[in-house]
Design a protein that fits this description.
Layout (H helix, E strand, L loop, with lengths): L5 E4 L4 E7 L3 H6 L13 E8 L5 E9 L4 E6 L3 H10 L7 E4 L4 E7 L3 H8 L4 H5 L6 E5 L5 E7 L6 E7 H14 L2 E2 L2 H11 L14 H4 L2 H4 L10 H10 L6 E8 L10 E4 L2 E12 L4 E9 L8 E4 L2 E6 L18
Parallel strand pairs: 1-11
Antiparallel strand pairs: 1-7, 2-5, 2-6, 3-4, 4-5, 7-10, 8-9, 9-10, 12-15, 12-17, 13-14, 13-16, 14-15, 16-17
Helix pairs in contact: 3-5
Amino acid sequence: MIQGAAFIDRSDARGRITVAGADRRSYLQGLLTNDVASLEPGRGCYAAYLTAQGRMIADAYVYELGDVILLSVARAAKDMVLAKFDQFIFSEDVQLGDVTDTFAQIAVIGSGAAGALAGVLSAAIGSLDSLPEHGSMRTTTAEGAAAIVTRITDAGADGYDVYVERAAAGPLIASLTAYGARALDPASADALRIEAGVPLFGRDMDEETIPLEAGIESRAISFTKGCYVGQEVIIRVTHRGHGRVARRLVGLRIGGDDVPADRTPIRSGDRDIGHVTSAAFSPSQKAAIALGYVHRDFVEPGTSVTIDGRPAEVVRLPIASESAPRPRAETPA
C-alpha cells in the first residue's frame, strides 16, 4: 500500500485517442467488449478491442467526457487501434483524434492522492473522493491550465490519472512534488502493479491473448450488451466451453530475491507448463513475485512449480492480499 501520495508519469507509456461526434457511443458499442452506449457524461469503463477470432488488439480505458470520449490504450497499440477504428467509419457521425503527443498523463496514487490533487488543482477533495472507478471530471491546475481527472486502479493502487497539455506537465509535477508527493520509480511501480494482479497489455496480454485467459472478463466484458467484434468466440468459450481455456494468468511467489526475466519458463517436474510475463521484487512480500501463464491444470493456488530452477508457488490475485511464506521446494513426481 502506498502511504501518502506518489506520482507516475505515464505520458510515454500510454496512447490517447479521442472519439467525437453524435454517434461516438453507438459506434464504439459495436467495437468494444463493454457497454459504452450506457455511459453518461463523467462515467467510463474498462474494455477490450478484439479481432473476429476473439484475440486482443488492445485493452482500453474509456471515458465519456460529455462532448468527446477519451480512450487510454497501451502506446504500442495506439496506431493499430486508430487504423482499425477508421476502417469501421462509414456514414456515422464520428471523428477520431490522436492526442497522444498533445496531452501528458500523470498518475497520482496512494492514500493521500486525493489530498495532494486537491492541493494542486481547483478540485475539492470531496469531489475527488466521490469519483467512482472510471469516473472523470474537468478542472484546472494551480497555474490555470485545463485538466481532466479520471479515477483509476490499474496502477496497482487507488488513485487518479491527470491529463493536461504537455506544456503544463512540468509545472503540475513541480506542484505535486512541492506538496509532498514523491515520484515512484519504474521498478516500484511495476512491483505495485504485479502485486495487485493487473495485467499490462504488451507484457501480460498480447495479440494472441483471449480475455478469459488473462482473467479480465469480469471487468472488461458486458455479457448483456449487443454484438461487438469477437463476441461469438467469447460467448462460445463462456457458455459452451464453460469458461475453460487452455491457459490462465496466475500470480506467482518465487523463492529467493532474484527476479526472473520475462518469458522464463515455468515448469512442473520435467514439464514446461507456461512462462513468466512480468516479474519484480516485492518489498511487502519480501520475495520475487510474478504474473505468468500456466496450463489450466496448474492454476490452483498452492500449486508448487519451479522457475529458473527455484521453487515457486501459484498464489491468488491480488498477490498483495496473500501472506508471504517462502515457497516450498517442489515435490518430485
